[in-house]
Amino acid sequence: MNLPRDLSVSSPSNPRLKALVALRRRRVREETGQTIVEGHEEIRLALDAGVTPRTLYVAEELFSPSGRAGSQEIGTQPELVERLRAAGVEIVRLSPAAYAKVSYREGPDGLLAVVDDVGVPLASLTVDGPSWLGLVAQRIEKPGNLGAMLRTADAAGVDAVVAADPVTDWGNPNVVRASKGTLFAVPVASGTTSETLAWLAHGAVTLVVTTPETDLLHTEVDYTGRVAIAVGSEKHGVDDALLVAATHRVRIPMHGRANSLNVSVAAAVVLYEAVRQRASRLGGGGPA
């Protein structure tokens, strides 16, 4: 098979690069149905999750000699480039100045891809199995928090993450970056709060809502069935609609001056209580 030759771009004012930078804007992402992913590890995880980039932009001068992420061997940048080239992905080589024009992260490693935007309509997600576990993130404003929740959701084996009344979109490059690419490994959807509640009710899902305004600790409920854990916006928490619909309202004990945790941390604490209980149940111990 004859593979196409790589394109090369050296000028930061090239029209292709202007279009690439435009994908940082939500309106452009929604119009094109595309977003951008920067970083060796993030692109590799997206590829492993079945996402094939439309185009890969490469600046070899920025490549790391090791290609490692911590103690985990993930291969090298040249190996990833060859993998994508063999898959028929368009490869565009950039000069360092041109790459600096499109890069959006500190310490870039010379790889940036254009991929189809993520997220599906809520109605297309299904609640399967007696132990389905979901996360509802209502009106989260900061992309970093949404991305951090996706990393936790992936690690905890969450079946789906739903953005209720979303303020930021799933394709926001900072969501992708903060998720370390796990955005592509966890099913995600968006909907209004009322749509989300109807969808959960249709799936017979127990709704556990976090709020400081309750006496029930997050360790005092059973998370071993079909469960969705809901967290709310950084400023205001969950709204009245979620509180009214909740099967359980739970709080995380606080022993300092603050009355709440960062929303992504709160989601992690409660999700891992669900993980602990489920592991205990499988081992025969049941919830503590």
From TrEMBL:
SUPFAM superfamilies: alpha/beta knot, L30e-like. Residues 36-121 form the RNA 2-O ribose methyltransferase substrate binding domain. GO terms for cellular component: cytoplasm. Keywords: Methyltransferase, Transferase. GO terms for molecular function: RNA binding; RNA methyltransferase activity. GO terms for biological process: methylation; RNA processing. PANTHER family: RRNA METHYLTRANSFERASE 3, RRNA METHYLTRANSFERASE 3, MITOCHONDRIAL. Belongs to the class IV-like SAM-binding methyltransferase superfamily. RNA methyltransferase TrmH family. This is tRNA/rRNA methyltransferase (SpoU). It comes from Intrasporangium calvum (strain ATCC 23552 / DSM 43043 / JCM 3097 / NBRC 12989 / NCIMB 10167 / NRRL B-3866 / 7 KIP). The lineage of its organism: Bacteria, Bacillati, Actinomycetota, Actinomycetes, Micrococcales.
